[in-house]
Design brief:
The chain has a 5-stranded mixed sheet with strand order 6-5-7-4-8, covered by helices on one side. Strands 2-1-3-9 form a 4-stranded mixed sheet. The protein is globular and about 55 Å long. It is α/β, with parallel strands linked by helices and 260 residues long. The chain has 2 domains: 127 residues, D-Maltodextrin-Binding Protein, domain 2 (3-Layer(aba) Sandwich); 102 residues, 3-Layer(aba) Sandwich (D-Maltodextrin-Binding Protein, domain 2). The termini are far apart.
Length: 260
């Protein structure tokens, strides 16, 4: 037979368990890519975009659960509703998704060549006659028409964690003349691999905002709307606090808001 003390302990334990179940954080499934220093799938740092997202959702009603995929698969998983959010496309890269008001960073897409090359990007017309490496499913507003009209000039490389490695090798052995990728990521990898003397930046396209984009899955519309609103409010607060600058400093980078 239970005594009064035992009954009280059981009641208290049951109340705690019920409270944990009642207030358990809602899972927020995020599809991401390996895109250091924005999103780092390995190493002791997670990337400034991931740091920003986790700062926003810290102590929130949501439990962020991140899985890393190749870019095309990451986009499709969110389009199909298998995950609620994608990190971190420009609007033109995943037009079927839902975008919050607030961006989570920017991307400066730049061309890179061998260091002794005298070619420089000055606009789409300067690409005439060149073989260009480009990540598959990448959308660059000022180049989209040129790419559509001249697809044979482009080597569409599936985006994965080996994209830059493949691009460096193809450029080195003259299989492509130049490749296009985000400035921060390429410089980060060149320095990391001691290749910064072998390659150089050869001009950039326009700067685009990148986002935490959400699934259009009709069955999740209500939940996704709440997630987007929470993100927008959190991002506004983070910007106002000056924390973005501190996050970027961890990666030796300037506050991306300065380039908007």
């Amino acid at each position: 037979m239970f005594n009064l003390k035992s009954k009280s302990m059981i009641f208290a334990s049951s109340f705690i368990l019920l409270s944990q179940q009642t207030y358990a954080a809602e899972p927020l499934l995020v599809s991401s890519i390996d895109w250091c220093p924005q999103l780092c799938g390995t190493g002791d740092k997670e990337g400034y975009v991931m740091d920003t997202v986790k700062a926003i959702f810290k102590d929130s009603p949501y439990q962020v659960d991140v899985q890393t995929f190749p870019w095309s698969r990451a986009i499709k998983s969110v389009e199909k509703g298998q995950a609620q959010a994608l990190l971190a496309p420009a609007k033109q890269e995943a037009p079927n998704l839902m975008f919050p008001t607030q961006e989570v960073g920017i991307q400066r897409m730049c061309f890179f060549t061998k260091s002794h090359s005298d070619w420089e990007y000055t606009g789409p017309e300067s690409l005439a006659g060149l073989k260009v490496g480009l990540a598959q499913d990448t959308s660059i507003e000022e180049l989209n028409s040129f790419i559509a009209d001249n697809p044979d000039q482009f080597d569409f490389i599936p985006y994965s964690d080996s994209y830059l490695d493949i691009s460096f090798k193809k450029t080195k052995f003259d299989r492509i003349d130049t490749f296009l990728f985000t400035y921060n990521s390429t410089q980060y990898e060149l320095i990391k691999r001691n290749l910064d003397a072998e390659f150089k930046e050869a001009g950039c396209t326009t700067t685009a905002k990148i986002y935490m984009a959400f699934t259009p899955d009709a069955g999740q519309t209500s939940d996704v709307k709440e997630m987007m609103d929470y993100f927008d409010q959190g991002m506004k607060s983070l910007k106002a606090s000056g924390e973005i600058k501190n996050i970027m400093a961890k990666y030796g980078l300037s506050d991306w808001q300065e380039f908007l």
